[in-house]
Each structure stands twice: as C-alpha cells, then as structure tokens.
Amino acid sequence: MQNLNDNFIFGCWRLNEWNYSTHELRRLVDQLLDIGINEFDHADIYGNYSCEAIFGKLLAEDPSLRKKIKLTSKCGIKLVSDKFPEHKTHIYDTSKAHIIAATDRSIQNLQAGYLDLLLIHRPDPLMNADEVAEAFMLLKASGKVLNFGVSNFTPMQFELLQSRLDFPLITNQIEASVVCHEHFVNQNLDFCQKIKMRPQVWSPLAGGRLSDQTNSTSLRVWRTLENIASKYESTPEIIAIAWLLTHPAKLRILLGSGKIERITQLLNAQKVHLNRDEWFALWSAYTGVEIP
Ligand SMILES: NC(=O)c1ccc[n+]([C@@H]2O[C@H](COP(=O)([O-])OP(=O)(O)OC[C@H]3O[C@@H](n4cnc5c(N)ncnc54)[C@H](OP(=O)(O)O)[C@@H]3O)[C@@H](O)[C@H]2O)c1
Predict the structure, then answer these.
(1) Which of 9, 5, 6 is nearest to 201 (CA)?
(2) What residue spans define the domains of the chain?
(3) Of the candidates 256, 134, 238, the residue with the CA atom closest to the CA atom of residue 201
(4) How remote is the CA of residue 208 from the centroid of ligand 1, in Å?
C-alpha cells in the first residue's frame, strides 16, 4: 500500500448498481488500498439496505482485510422497503433503540465486528440529544463503534449533540461542490474551522451531473471548469475537486465513482493549486453574480 491518503474516502452508495462480483469488488478494494484510500463510507439504507451486505462478503471471504480498512456507516433513516414490512412511512428515527438496532445490523451485514465511525445520517426534527448520546455511549463502551459523527447537521444541531457527550464528534458529512454552496454560506465550514474538525464532503462532482448542460447555470460552471482545466492540462472534474481541496477547512472528499481509473485520476486534484482568481471565477459562475 502507498502512503494513506486521508483527503479521500470511497463512497459505497452506488455499490449495488455496479453489479460487481465479489472477486471484482475485491480487486477494486485492493486497487483503492494501492492508491492509499482505505476508508469506505456506507449507510444502512444504501441500495435499499443491500450495499453493506454486498461489501460484507469481502470480509467473510477474507477476515484479514478488516484491519486494512476503515468502515463508516450511518443510521437514522427508515425507508419504506420490502426488507422491512413494518416500515409504513419514510421517517427519521434517532431513538436509542433504533440507533442500536441499526448499528448492530450494519456490523452484521458488513461482517465487520465493529465500525470505525457511525454517523447520524440526517438531522431528525424529533432528535432527543440525551437519547442519541446514550446510544453512542453504549456503542462506544461495548467496542461496537470507535468514533461518532453526524451528517447534514447545522452547527447548532452539532453543538446540541456534542454538549451531551464526553468525547468529541469527529466529523459532519455534508454536501458540497462547485454547484452546491450551501455549507459555504450557512456557517458550517466556518464552524468546522473553528473547532478544527475536518468535514467530509459528499457528491463532490454533483453525483456525476457536473457536465449536465441543460440549464444556463450548469453550462456556465462547466465552461469555467473547462477553461481552468485547459490551463492546468487537466480535466473539469479534477478542477472541481481541487476547488474543494482549496478550502481551509481541509475537506475530506467522498468519491462515488465505481471506476478505479476515474478515482486514480481525481487524486491528481491534490497537485492543482487554484489561485483566488480561479476559485472565485468558479464561485461566481455558479451564483451568476459578482461577489459584493
Ligand atoms: N451523508 C449523506 O447524506 C450522503 C448523501 C449522498 C452520498 N453520500 C456519500 O457520498 C459518496 C459520494 O457521493 P456521489 O456518489 O454523489 O459522488 P460524486 O463523486 O459526486 O458522483 C459519483 C458519480 O459521478 C459519476 N461520474 C461521472 N463522471 C465522472 C468522473 N469523471 N469521475 C468520477 N465520477 C464520475 C460516477 O459514475 P461512474 O461510477 O460511472 O464513474 C458516479 O455515478 C456516496 O457514495 C456516499 O457514500 C452521503
């Protein structure tokens, strides 16, 4: 394995769509380890509750893989699914009972023994911080989960949960890209800098829709990416990742491609250092207005 590359995490959301055999998936995991990516991001609900079990076959076949990788999972969403006939509606559930049951299921499906990181998937309007904290503390004490965090939380929601815990939440997983500025302007990234916590960023390439040229905004952003890419003899996707890596909050990027060639290519974003002119050209290409 090369040196570990902690700027990148491999996203397993689309695992069930790739239809990889266990052998092909193992080859991909080995190739990721070779390029220094050893963290894998899951959620109980991915692929209609199927992705964790697909990944788990790797660990069942070769338990020695477990110590080479880090596994994240998320809980707190209940989908209506044939797998859970008792789920009558699509809801959030951050009750202690659900967090513990969902985490046990994730560990079992992943055949992992424990999780390196557990996140509350989305803010639940009915979240009782004391109850979530109790679940986290039980999971930590039992050794089932080593670290905890949240996803899509505001700074206030983060602080609420943190106030009930005697260990630090280690990340907030949020959406960000050249076409998703929400967390640049809602103080989340400022908050991450303040507490010196690296956020994880999902859909850094807008889920593959960056080159979507069906509206004037995406067309403008894509053209700007292309212009900057030509200067660096690079690609628009690499520039889009470099734009995120420029941010001082030290974003950790979740890559969602199932193709090792694309992932390997995106790592070149670390060699591109955008200047402020280029960074703000992309900012304004999305907002459509000059900064004040
Ligand atoms: N916490 C949350 O609420 C949340 C929500 C969504 C996702 N996530 C996590 O974030 C991860 C990443 O999200 P994402 O999948 O939307 O990420 P993404 O990297 O923005 O999008 C990946 C998609 O882009 C496509 N793509 C098209 N051109 C590409 C290129 N040149 N290079 C790379 N990919 C290209 C990929 O297709 P190919 O596979 O064909 O390359 C894939 O379908 C997920 O896997 C999941 O773990 C978390």
Answers:
(1) 9
(2) 8-170
(3) 256
(4) 6
Q: Supply the residue whose CA is at minimum distance from atom 5 of ligand 1.
A: 202
Residue nearest to atom 39 of ligand 1 (CA): 257
Q: How far is the CA of 207 from the centre of ligand 1 (A)?
A: 4
What CATH number was assigned to the domain covering residues 8-170?
A: 3.20.20.100
254 C-alpha to ligand 1 centroid (Å): 8
Q: Record the tokens describing residue 134, joined without a space.
A: 């109790």
What's the whole-number mean pLDDT along residues 31-45?
98
Is there an atom of ligand 1 within 6 Å of 254 CB? yes
Residue of minimum CA distance from atom 26 in ligand 1 = 208
Residues with Cβ < 8 Å from 193, sequence gap 6 or more?
A: 248, 249
Asked if residue 236 lies in contact with residue 178, where contact means CB atoms within 8 angstroms, the answer is no
Q: Which residues are catalytic?
A: 46
pLDDT for 212:
86
Residue 121: which of 157, 69, 88, 159 has the closest Cα?
157
Tokens at 196, concatenated? 């010196």
In which residue are the tokens 């900064």 written? 291
**Ligand 1 close to Cβ of residue 206 (< 6 A):** yes
Cβ of 139: how many Cβ atoms within 10 Å?
A: 21
Is residue 3's pLDDT more than 90?
Answer: no
**Crossing angle for the helix pair 276-287 and 236-245, to the nearest 10 degrees:** 110
Q: Is 205 in the pocket of ligand 1 (CB under 6 A)?
A: yes
User: Which atom of ligand 1 is found nearest the CA of 174?
Assistant: 1
Please name the helix (run of DSSP H) or strand (run of DSSP E) that holds residue 127, with its range, or none.
none
Q: Specify the pTM.
A: 0.98
Residue 1 has pLDDT above 80, yes or no: no
